[in-house]
Amino acid sequence: MNVEQAMQQRHSVRAFLPQAVDAALVRDLLAQAGQAASGGNLQPWRVVALTGQSLQELRQAMGGATPNSDPALVYPAALWEPYRSRRFENGEDLYRSIGIDREDKKGRLMQLAQNTQMFGAPVGIFIAVDKRMVHAQWVDLGIYLQSLMLLATQKGLATCAQGFWRNFSDFVSRHLALPEDYQIAFGMALGYEDSSAPINQWRSSRAEVGEWCEMRGFE
């Protein structure tokens, strides 16, 4: 599989098989993703991968977790077009794929809570960053994350990047015994896709390239 094929095949998986992932494979993926570009070669990511009992302990602990006192911003306030419509369509299509109506608040909250269980994935990965880093280093984290997801896809694995964990950064950082100055940037579920799960049949749409790209001077 080449990079183009991995880009086409990668999607956010929200139902995993219980099949374990070999430890050597996980380590190799994390190490290869470390070749990602970063400004000034800071390599600002700090990564913790959990499986087995370690992951189960976190899942259980999340039952009593409290969110950060200062909630993380996921989107800008009063999101504008075209972003508002894209977000709305994405959410509606996702819940529709598993038969949860817009009025079913309980059902939507239950699905959201699946984030705390890594959607049943056998491996949970957390990417943390020093709180003193600035926006440019967060861009570097995104490059690391995308590299990791594409490498996983190449190896036949499935992933789901989860910004959800930022809202529990304080709790998870303590649970993982991270250095005091670190915060959770995002989590990622890793494992083998349950291709029979309805939620994994859905694919989010993409805007046409002409909506966001201009090419100048190529004539």
Would you spell out the secondary-structure blueprint of this structure?
Layout lengths: L2 H7 L13 H11 L12 E6 H10 L21 H15 L7 H9 L9 E8 L4 H20 L3 E5 L6 H7 L6 E10 L28
Helix pairs in contact: 1-6, 2-6
CATH architecture: 3-Layer(aba) Sandwich
Supply the CATH class: Alpha Beta
CATH H level, superfamily name: NADH Oxidase
Order of helices and strands: HHEHHHEHEHE
Can you tell me the residue ranges where pLDDT is under 50 for at least 5 consecutive residues?
A: none
Question: Considering DSSP H and I runs of 4 or more, what fraction of the residues is helical?
Answer: 25-40%
The number of distinct structural domains comes to: 1
Question: Termini separation (Å)?
Answer: 33 Å
Assess the beta-strand content as a share of residues: 5-15%
Question: What class would the helix/strand composition place it in?
Answer: alpha+beta
Overall average pLDDT: 94
Give the strand tally: 4
What is the fold-level CATH name, i.e. the topology?
Answer: NADH Oxidase
Q: Rough shape?
A: globular
Biggest beta sheet attributes:
4 strands, antiparallel
Rounded Rg: 18 Å
Q: Give me the side-by-side strand order of the main sheet.
A: 1-2-4-3
By DSSP (H or I, 4+ residues per run), the number of helices equals 7
